[in-house]
Write a structure and sequence with these properties.
Layout: H1 2-16, H2 21-32, H3 37-43, H4 50-89, H5 108-122, E1 126-127, E2 133-134, H6 136-139, H7 150-154, E3 159-163, E4 169-172, H8 177-186, E5 191-200, E6 211-221, H9 226-240, E7 248-252, E8 258-271, E9 274-277, E10 286-296, H10 298-303, E11 312-319, H11 320-328, H12 341-347, E12 361-362
Parallel strand pairs: 1-5, 9-12
Antiparallel strand pairs: 2-4, 3-4, 5-6, 6-11, 7-8, 8-9, 8-10, 10-11
Helix pairs in contact: 1-4, 2-4, 5-11
Length: about 375
């Protein structure tokens, strides 16, 4: 017992006297290490008589627990002191001016969106927005997609674990048409709106990314017809690219939510690696798909609580980044979302800029 009391006093003095990380570690090794004082005492228990070993073992184990707790407490105190010392030495002067290369600019997506909205605003369209997490009804069913329709799989939809009121999984919207549905259900015609926003599909290559921006438009009233749709879009494409006589054609197609449906193509020619919108005189004209459109399907109008015998209208959609790529001469859609500061500095715009036609795309040439 005298050895136990002496060991206790010496160990406590060693721990309490530790002034830094190195000394507290040395104290731990001197007490608890392979050759430590407490370890040696534990080794001697095997030489004692059973009754004496039982009594002594309980006391040694109790002392070991007390010293371990004392070591941990001292270690915490020293760690706190070391951290405070480190923080005091490693201060940052937040008064330094920012580096000039961190100055911001307007992203090309936002720039082209501003231009598109401005053009449609002159035609009397208003901007509508809606949620990016949607349910099956607004994203598919209301748009005339039956449950087994193959077009559902074509969209490569991101489904979520959360369920809607009907027990179906929620999803990330695959098109901003969901906002058109919500607008028709919440407002009375006439409607003339555009819906810019982010959409999501599970695909990725030079011309597709899992997240991208769309601009969709909708007109609903009692007298709108296909001629209005063609005039609206021809005016838009010629205005966005600044080419008064840009060839625009409407090619029959299929969409579940429109009937009649059409793909919109614009005419161009190539001059080396450059695209010449409008074509070059004497060269054959090529066609580039640039969007989709059509007269709103009667089922869609009916699904939104309106009478298709009274109301009709048209809808259209286009990819925002693809228009920026064509107008500003960008070869890869994925660069829009890589966060490369060199790319952003090269293609970014001042908030006061209203750019003309880009250098890599030329107006019609004679």
């Amino acid at each position: 017992m005298s050895n136990l009391d002496q060991l206790n006093n010496e160990a406590r003095a060693l721990i309490n006297g530790a002034a830094d990380q190195a000394s507290i570690e040395a104290a731990r090794v001197a007490i608890m290490g392979k050759s430590g004082s407490l370890t040696n005492l534990l080794k001697q228990l095997g030489t004692m008589a059973p009754d004496e070993r039982k009594e002594m073992g309980q006391k040694v184990n109790a002392l070991r627990d007390e010293l371990n707790a004392l070591l941990a407490e001292k270690q915490a105190v020293l760690n706190k002191a070391a951290l405070a010392e480190k923080l005091a030495k490693e201060t940052i002067d937040i008064s330094l001016p920012i580096r000039p290369e961190t100055s911001g600019s307007l992203h090309p997506t936002m720039q082209i969106l501003d231009e598109m909205v401005a053009i449609f605003a002159e035609m009397g369209f208003t901007v509508a927005t809606g949620p990016e997490i949607e349910d099956d009804f607004h994203n598919f069913t209301a748009l005339n997609f039956p449950p087994d329709h193959p077009a559902r799989t074509m969209h490569d939809t991101f489904y979520l674990e959360a369920k809607d009121d009907l027990g179906q999984p929620k999803l990330l919207r695959t098109q901003t048409s969901t906002v058109q549905i919500r607008s028709m259900m919440e407002q009375q015609p006439p409607l003339r709106l555009i819906v810019p926003g982010r959409t999501f599909r599970a695909e990725s290559d030079m011309t597709h990314t899992p997240m991208f921006h769309q601009m969709e438009g909708l007109v609903i009233d009692k007298t709108t017809h296909m001629g209005h749709l063609k005039g609206c879009l021809m005016e838009f494409w010629r205005e966005i690219f600044g080419i008064e006589n840009l060839p625009v054609r409407f090619r029959p197609s299929f969409f579940p939510f429109t009937e009649l449906s059409a793909e919109v193509d614009i005419g161009y020619s190539r001059e080396g690696s450059r695209i010449v919108l409008g074509g070059i005189k004497g060269q054959p004209l090529k066609w580039m798909e640039i969007g989709g459109c059509g007269m709103v399907h009667p089922n869609v109008i009916r699904n939104c609580g309106l009478d298709p015998e009274i109301y009709q209208g048209f809808a259209f959609g286009m990819g925002v980044e693809r228009i920026a790529m064509l107008k500003y001469g960008m070869p890869d859609l994925r660069d829009f979302f890589n966060g490369d500061l060199r790319w952003l500095r090269h293609y970014g715009f001042s908030v006061l800029d209203y750019p003309n036609r880009p250098l890599d795309i030329v107006a019609q040439k004679d």
